[in-house]
Design brief:
This is E3 ubiquitin-protein ligase. By secondary structure, the chain is an alpha+beta fold. The chain contains six helices and three strands, in the order H-H-E-H-H-E-H-E-H.
Amino acid sequence: LIKSIKQTIEVVLDYILETFATSPEDVSPGKKENIIRDCRDSHKAHHIPYNAANTSYVCMLWNDEQHSFDEVINVVSSAIQCSKEHAMRVAEEVDTYGRHLVFSSNDLDEAIKVADQIYEIKLAVTIRSVQTSVREEISGLLLDWLKDL
């Protein structure tokens, strides 16, 4: 039983560390070529097939403790064409959890357009593949699980 527990924890820690090692350090949208390169490299590191034409992308908004709720609400509602109420829920999620997926698309140019609008006021935003983003979410859940152990 102890051996199985150790092996499970090792696998979980490897997964988390591999995921965080390939997560973005720069919280700005970046150029299209860099986003594609980062997604390709991240997928390769995790043994996930990558095809830029068939990949879905997400814009992840990060909490930066520098912008007011009103600033976040205004820029998010403008960038993704949503109601102020929806943008307020996004701002609350970012404040509570540190980040929130604000937009997803199969069109990288569209994701870049949204991210650039959000970044106009220097709000922290990244563009990642859906697969990489899901892997990061799973890592967060695994960290909580380890903490509960």
